[in-house]
Amino acid sequence: MKINKIFTREGNTIQALWVGMGSLSSFALAIVSAAILSRYFNKTDYGTYRQILYVYNTLLVIFTAGLPRVFSYFLPRYSIEQGKDIVLKISKMLFVFGLIFSLFLFSFSGIISKLLNNPELSSGLKYFSLIPMFLLPTLGIEGIFSTYKKTIYIAIYNTLSRLLMLLFIVLPVIVFNGTLNHALLGWIIVSFLSFWIAIYFKRIPFKQTESEKTTLSWKEIFSYSLPLVGATIAGIALRSADQFYISRYYGTEVFADYVNGFIEIPFVAMITGTTAMILMPQFSKMIHDKTSVHNITNLWRNALTKSALLIYPMVVFFIFNAKYIIVLLYSAKYSNSYIYFQIAMIVNFFNIIIFAPLLFSMGETRFYMKTQILFAILAWIGGFVIVSTTKSPQIIALYSVSLSIFLVIVFLKKVSSVLDVSISELIPFKKFFSILIHSFIIITTVLLIGNYLLNFKNEHLKFISNFCIYVVLILLTSSWFNNDYLIVIKSLLIKKHND
C-alpha cells in the first residue's frame, strides 16, 4: 500500500472526534483520580505525589529524545511497509531509554528530594523508578494512528489505560485507606499492563503487512527529534519554573494549592491537542508535496475557527465560575486554588493558535528550540526576581501566563514570515471577537439571573444552574452573532449521511 492510498480524501471531523473522545476520557479519569486522591491523602502526601509527577514529566522529554513525536512527521512520507519497520525500530529504542530513565530516578532520588526540599520525595521516587521502563515504549500511539486515520484506536487505548490506572492506583487507596506507597505500587502494576497493551496496539495498523526495511536512518531521525528535545526541555523549563519556585520557597501546602489550580481546562488541552494531532501528518504531507500556501492557510484557519467555537465560550464560563469548579473537584480544602485557576485560563485565549504542527512540518524546529530556550531563561530569571522581592505566589502565576502569551505571538509572527502571508490571513480575528463578545454578554446575563433571580444558597446547585442557563442561552442566541456552535455535530451528521 502506497502513501497516496493512505491519504484518501476524508473529513478530519470524524478523526478528530475519536481523538477527542480518547483525550476526553483520559482527562476525565485523570481529574477523577486527582479529585479522589486529594481527598484521601493529607496535603503533605498529596503534595509529594504531585511532586513525583512533576519530576517525571520534567525529565520525560530528555529520556524520550523526542522519539514519540517523529511518527507523525516521518510515517506520512514512507510506505506503510516501511512504516512498520520505523515503528518497531523506534519502540525498541524507547524501551532502552526507559530503562536508563528508571536507573536515573533510583540513583538520584535523594538529590532530587533535597533539591525540592521534601525528604518524603526520596522514597517515593525509588518506588516510582520502576515505572518509566514500561511507560516509555507506550508513547507515540497517537502519532501512529492519526497518520493512518485509525484514530478510534487512540480513543480505545487512552480510555482503557486510564481505567486501569483508576482501578490499580485510586481504588486501593479508597478501599484499604492506602498510603502514597500503595498508590505507587498500583502504578507499577498498571504500567506493566499498559506496556503489553501498547505493544499490541502498535501492531494494529500493520496487520497483514510485510515489513520492509526502511531507508530512514537514525541520523535523520535524531536530526529532526533532537531540536524538538531541546525545545521541549526549554518548554518544560519555562512551565516548571513557577512550580519549582513555589514548591521550594512557599512550602508543600501552597504547592498543592497551586498545582490543583494552575491548570488548563482539560477540554481546552483536549481540543488543541486533538487538532494538532490530526493536522501534523497532513501538514507534513502537504509541505513534502509542495502544496500551495493558500490550501495550507485555509486548512489552518478552518481548524482555528472550529477550535474557537468550542473553546472560547467554555473559557469565559469557567473564569467566572472558577471557585465553584475548584471546590466541586477538590473540596473546600483547596478553595484558594481558584485564583490560580482564573489566572491560568487567561492563556487559553491565545494558545488556541496551534503553531507547532506547521512549524515542525516546515522544518523550523531549530527556531522553535531557540525561542523556547530564550523564554525559559526569562522564566527562571523573572521567577527568581519575584520570589526575592515579593511573598505572593500569584505574581509568579501572572508572570508565567504573560510569558506564554508573548511566546504564542512570537511563533505566530514566524509562521507568517515563513509562509509570506499577513497575520490577518492566518487568524480569523473577526470570528474570534464575535465569539468572545457573545460569550461575555451571555455570562453577564447568567450571573444576573443566578445572583438576583434564582440566588441558590448551595454552591454546587448554583454552578449547575449557571452552566445549564449558559449553554441554553449560548445556543439559542448563536444565530444573532452568526456563531454555529453545533458545526462539529453537523459535520458528523453530514459525514454519516454521505457514508
What does the model show?
The structure is a single chain. With 499 residues, the protein is an all-alpha fold. The protein folds into 2 domains: 1-214, no CATH class; 217-426, no CATH class. It contains 24 helices and no strands. The chain has helices spanning 3-6, 12-40, 43-64, 71-74, 80-107, 109-115, 120-128, 132-135, 141-147, 152-175, 180-203, 218-249, 252-261, 266-288, 293-320, 322-330, 337-345, 356-361, 365-389, 393-419, 423-426, 429-454, 459-476, 487-498. Helix 5 runs antiparallel to helix 7 and helix 14 (266-288) runs antiparallel to helix 15 (293-320). The longest helix is centred in the middle third of the chain and has 32 residues, at 218-249.
Write the layout of secondary structure elements.
Elements: H1 3-6, H2 12-40, H3 43-64, H4 71-74, H5 80-107, H6 109-115, H7 120-128, H8 132-135, H9 141-147, H10 152-175, H11 180-203, H12 218-249, H13 252-261, H14 266-288, H15 293-320, H16 322-330, H17 337-345, H18 356-361, H19 365-389, H20 393-419, H21 423-426, H22 429-454, H23 459-476, H24 487-498
Mean pLDDT: 79
Main sheet attributes: strand count, strand direction, barrel closure: none
Spans with pLDDT under 50 lasting ≥5 residues?
Answer: 1-11, 492-499
Report the strand count. Answer: 0
First-residue to last-residue Cα separation: 23 Å
- Number of discrete domains: 2
Number of helices: 24
As a percent range, the share of helical residues equals over 70%
**In what range is the share of β-strand residues?**
under 5%
Kindly provide the radius of gyration, computed on alpha-carbon positions and rounded to a whole number of angstroms.
23 Å
Order of helices and strands: HHHHHHHHHHHHHHHHHHHHHHHH
Structural class: mainly alpha
Global geometry:
globular
